[in-house]
Amino acid sequence: MSAPAARRDAAIVWFRDDLRVADNPALDAAARTGKPVVGLFVHDTISPGVRAPGAAQKWMLHHSLAALSDALGELGVPLVLRAGPASDIVPAFAGEAHASAIFWNRRYDQALIAVDSELKRDLTAAGVKATSFNGNYLHEPSLLKTGSGGPYKVFTPFRRALAAGEEPGPPLPAPAQCASGDGELPGLRLDKLSLLPHGPDWTGGLRESWPAGEAAAMGRFTDFLATGLDGYGEGRDRPGQPHVSRMSPYLRFGVVSPRQLWHGARESGAPRADLEKFLSELAWREFCCHLAFHFPRMDSRNFDERFDAFPWRESHRDLPAWKKGMTGYPIVDAGMRELWRTGYMHNRVRMIVASFLVKDLMIDWRVGERWFWDTLVDGDTASNPANWQWVAGSGADAAPYFRIFNPVLQGEKFDPQGDYVRAFVPELSALPDRILHKPWEADTQTLAQAGVELGVTYPHRVVDHREARQSALDALQTVKKAS
């Protein structure tokens, strides 16, 4: 992309994970200066602390940037794309644009904070005023502390402290218009960022599932408030029902803000129990950010160091079966196939498939976290590892390791009519409900009538859950010995 250059005394908005024009404090502040505004996005995958986006995230980023460029264009703001280390590109771009001010919304990974802090010093020394805001969370992780002055490690008191603080401010409207510059500043075309797959296009399910841009995201949220929030408290655990907001990919890239969702839900008139559960889910996202801020590298380190002694296993048979949704456990396979097809998985099912990998197969949670990172459109640097460690039992306020989900009982409880399994494992669709979640117990006649041949049309179980559970509990003793 190329864009009109700003006149001297321009204001730059450096977009990162905040790809929206409404409720964007950095854009709002730049517009209020009255200076010509220029948008900048730096595709930086090499700076210290940067975790390069996975394949599904790159697809989402491409289309979110395209939508943001269009939205900014309506305000008279060009979006310039560059690629490389931000520490080099941002100061150079400020010089090219003759900028006197630059605005951005903060990141909370410690390594990225260091990058931003150094940039602030360099820009200030060059006469460019750098101002940052909290644009993507409801609270500042550095400010919310326990009574002893430390970070929270347990969600419930964190949630109470968050609720006891100031109500999140109302969302900011999009600027009506921004001043424009003249001339041109060179930038990359969006396709030059190489965010879309080369070769076979596997993104058809993503295109069907995730319309891009703020208008589409807020339209989806409005529909959720009208039809999905009432009943959310219980319905959110049932993957075959519509009681999920599906906002996580849009939150991941800041296409919507948590303040917009918080206030939209509060003003919806939903039953109190459903509302509080939804707000609690937003608070859990805040908790994950809080943990990532205070305990860096949670994607690679056990929060509970006792799990460093856990005897994880490798399996060149079981891991591919899990990734492909061919474990022989229908609810697990449905979740993994939903992930591959749509770049998303229902939250309850995420817990089931994660428990199966870590506890039934005893494969290191980091292996699963990396697979989710590459395949989820909502892969988040804080939430993804925090949630995996929660399931594994190694994280903050984690489910104890001995809490091992039974995939059959989970399927029967949360997908009792089999709507979810039948949608993603169609080869089992003709099985009756009573046997759908445990096809290995079906008699020969039932299997034949349903057109199912175990080991041919649908795989045998990779493990027996009862035996796998006992093996996992035996392995847990190594953690207890490390206490």
Task: Give a structural overview.
The chain is 46% helix and 6% strand. It is of the alpha/beta class. It has three domains: 10-135, HUPs (Rossmann fold); 137-168 and 213-294, Serine Threonine Protein Phosphatase 5, Tetratricopeptide repeat (Alpha Horseshoe), CATH 1.25.40.80; 305-481, DNA Cyclobutane Dipyrimidine Photolyase, subunit A, domain 3 (Orthogonal Bundle), CATH 1.10.579. Strands 3-2-1-4-5 form a five-stranded parallel sheet, with helices on both faces. Helix 3 packs parallel to helix 4 and helix 13 packs across helix 14. The longest helix has 23 residues, at 272-294.
Provide a brief overview of the structure.
The chain is an alpha/beta fold and 483 residues long. It has 21 helices and five strands. The protein has a five-stranded parallel sheet, with helices on both faces.
